[in-house]
Structure formats: C-alpha cells, structure tokens
Backbone:
C-alpha cells in the first residue's frame, strides 16, 4: 500500500449565506475497462463494466447551470483509428446519452450555456453538437495539445473536432491561481467559493476536476474525472500500471505518470476528510448503488454530512 507525507490543510469555512452547487449525476454511457491498462498486477482478461459519468451542476442562489463532461457518443465511428483499435472487442454502449439524460431531468441541452470538459478522451467528449449554444471550458494545456491530435497527427487517439474551438475557453495558469485544500492550482469559478475548477495534471494535457460545495454548512464533493480509474488506485491499495514498448518508451494510461501519481496522492487526502465525498468518472461501485435513484437528475447527489 502506498503512503505519502503531505502538509496538513483545511478547507475554507462557509460564510453566511454561502452559495453551493446542486450536483446531479447523468447517465452518459458504459464501457469495459481492461484492468491491465490501469492497475499494476492485474491479470490478463480482468475487466470491469463501468459508467462514464457526466454531471449537472446548478448554483444554489443564481440558478446558473453547467454540465461537467459529455460521456460517450453513439456513433463511435467518428473517432480516430487509434480509438477504433483500442475499443475493438470491448463493450462500449450508450443506452442513454448525456443530452437524453438532461432532457429526462427537465433540462433542454440546446439551452445549456456552459460545458466543462475534464479532458479529451472519447468517453468524456460525447457529442458537442448537442450543445449548440454552450461555451466549452477546458484546462489550458488542452489548447496546444489539440493542435497535434487527429487528423493532424494520424496516430493520435483524440479527435481534433471533439469540441468547437471557436466556443472554447481555456483556463490556464493566469486563472488557476487559487489554492484549495490539497490542490495548489485552482480557479474559483463563481468567485464565491462554491465551485473550483482544479488543475488535475497527469492524465491528459488540460485534465481538470471539479471541487464543489454541496450545502451551505461545509459539505463538499470532488468530481475526479480520470484521476484514477478505480477506487483501489485512489486508496493506494493498487498502483498505476505502466510498461515499456520496444523503443523503450513508457506506455501508460496517463500521459505523465509521475504527475498523475502526484495528483492521485493529493486527491487521496480527501478520503478521510469529514463531509467530503470523492467520485470518479468510472466508479462502478457507486454507480451500482445509485443508478436509477435520486442521485441522478432531476434528483441531487446527497451532501455528505
């Protein structure tokens, strides 16, 4: 089991009339995760059927609404050859797309004004065409990264047109200036301490997470995206898988393994903090316990008390 030493931290106390975020899960597809790609020590053939969760975020006082991630689109043929190779023989399905989940919950996706995208992998970018009026928000490093994706780079597993660049705002170092809990680089999105976009470096350039208050009395939720693909990685019971190809290049689910492991360690610190819950995008245990229930729109994920 991995152990790390970190400086102690505290989370900011709520102020009088503290705004918070109503967070609702959205069905956005399911996929088969192959354990050997993510967790060291896994045996060939081990896999898990997981959700690719997206989220509805609503500010408690202004009612401003955002979407975090877009899940899996149905027409997977649009994705690059590298993706087609990666998913061959795996179960990938979208019984209910993110836009269908929003409509079912009473929200017209055509009227959504803001979509935050954790990162550019196929199981998180969905179909941006479902949000014709939205501004898309990504981590700053995604901008340069996008310039070298498919088809400009035929070997890339990221589709260059995944998000509309003309409607995308990239949050870079000049805005990631807040420190919140164990995270040194964050952006106070509403400017009132209700929701932070957190730099989650390591998995893919521009990877971001969401850290949001879930009530006015000190409860929080951390939406960790692909920081880890299984809770055992987050707890430290398992370690990130990696190998080396014939050319001596490291092969890993994370583009920068060291930064990814560092960020996992930071998120791990939240696991024992009172009134804080951590939710991974592919958390199958949480999903099985909550699917079809009140944690999904039009319901709200209950605050941890």
Residues:
């Amino acid at each position: 089991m991995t152990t790390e030493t970190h400086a102690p931290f505290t989370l900011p106390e709520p102020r009088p009339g503290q705004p918070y975020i109503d967070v609702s899960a959205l069905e956005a597809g399911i996929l088969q995760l192959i354990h050997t790609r993510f967790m060291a020590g896994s045996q060939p053939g081990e896999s898990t059927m997981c959700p690719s969760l997206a989220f509805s975020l609503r500010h408690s006082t202004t009612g401003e609404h955002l979407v975090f991630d877009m899940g899996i689109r149905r027409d997977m043929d649009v994705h690059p050859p590298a993706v087609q190779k990666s998913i061959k023989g795996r179960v990938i399905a979208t019984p209910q797309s993110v836009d269908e989940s929003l409509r079912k919950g009473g929200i017209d996706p055509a009227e959504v004004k803001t979509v935050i995208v954790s990162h550019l992998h196929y199981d998180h970018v969905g179909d941006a065409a479902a949000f014709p009026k939205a501004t898309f928000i990504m981590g700053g490093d995604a901008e340069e990264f996008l310039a070298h994706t498919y088809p400009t780079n035929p070997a890339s597993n990221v589709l260059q047109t995944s998000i509309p660049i003309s409607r995308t705002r990239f949050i870079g170092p000049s805005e990631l200036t807040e420190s919140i809990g164990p995270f040194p680089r964050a952006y106070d999105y509403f400017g009132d301490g209700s929701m932070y976009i957190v730099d989650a470096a390591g998995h893919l350039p521009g990877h971001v997470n969401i850290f949001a208050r879930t009530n006015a009395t000190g409860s929080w939720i951390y939406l960790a995206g692909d920081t880890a693909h299984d809770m055992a990685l987050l707890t430290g019971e398992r370690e990130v898988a990696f190998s080396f190809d014939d050319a001596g290049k490291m092969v890993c689910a994370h583009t920068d393994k060291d930064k990814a492991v560092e960020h996992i360690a930071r998120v791990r610190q939240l696991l024992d903090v009172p009134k804080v819950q951590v939710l991974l995008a592919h958390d199958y245990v949480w999903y099985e316990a909550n699917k079809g229930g009140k944690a999904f729109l039009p319901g709200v994920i209950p605050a941890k008390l």
Notes: Residues 102 and 219 are 25 Å apart (CA to CA). The longest strand covers residues 21-26. The radius of gyration is 18 Å.
